[in-house]
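DM from R.C. (forwarded with permission)

"hey, sorry to bug you on a friday — could you get me a structure for this? deadline for the figure draft is monday and I only need the backbone to look sensible"
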Amino acid sequence: MKILYVITSSDVGGAERALTNLVRFLPKYYQIKVVCLKPLGEQGKILRELGADITSLNMQGAGLGIVSKLVHEIESFKPDIVHAMLFRAIEFTRLACAGRNINLITTPHFDLSKKPLWMRWLDRSLKSIDTISTAESVSTYNYLVDIQGYPNKKTLLIGNSVEKSLFFKDNYLKSHMREKYHFAKDDVIFISVARLAAVKNPLFAAKVFLKILSTCPKAKFVFVGEGMERTVLEKFIQENKLEKQIILAGEQKNINEWLNLADVFVLVSKEESLPLALLEARQIGLPCIVSNVGDMPKLVEHGKNGFVGRPKDEILMSCFFAELYENKQLRQQMGEKSLCMAGQVKDSSQQYQQLYQQILNQ
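My reply, with the result:
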């Protein structure tokens, strides 16, 4: 089976890591090629290390000429299936496949409902080119079918999943990471794993954290990720003299180790679909503080494996931070519930392999 994956970027976002995980566990007899529209990022390097044939189209600006380049890639590779992920990759690939007898699967990995009208109109106009459209979250599936008019028979829900051999609770790692990065054993560490982008709301999270420090002196906050908001966060940290309390760790490959370092996972995004980082945090057994967007309230049952609040309510969110700081027993109980819930997630790689085979058997 020959599969051509097309994705907008190969940085360290959830969609990019989901593709890496999918490719990692495909049967070795599959012939895989990955086309990335933008210059290769960290996940692109990992895909190459896994043996994938990966090509960058080095897209700049509006992406003029990308469709013809994709047509060339399709015609030269002659895939059995083309699978596109993220908005620009999906729409450019649809145009490249239009009028050709090509099996096309699309997976958004983003919340289309929050995008501009022109993007929603374009998506609606080109959706019929898909052989199958897959949604990685319930909220995305409902939006595609109910609002965008995707046909039920051609739209499937295949939720993101986490490979258990890559993400697991490890008390040795916790001790090792704390010693390596000079954290005390009794520090209570909050962690956010996400791009430092406005949509992920990192400054809001930092402001919430600041509110609890007067009564929670052993609290620390680690941001794992990189992005345009780093400068804003650095200014906030400097102005409030938080250099010892808030750590900007930047991009990291070993996310399992960083999650094991922490006591509480935080993701207070303004928009989400089904974030991979949250699934990974549950797999580690962390209690989670999240905003009520996308599928996050389905992954975090309020009061059971964490807390859910609005991504603007600093006071309520600070109460959640303080509660999990002060109550070690509650952290443990919620962490155990996260582990239990994580064990119920289906393997998306197996589901996609079955889907690929069903399409070829038609």
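R.C.: lifesaver. The mean pLDDT is 95.
me: no worries. The longest strand covers residues 2-7.
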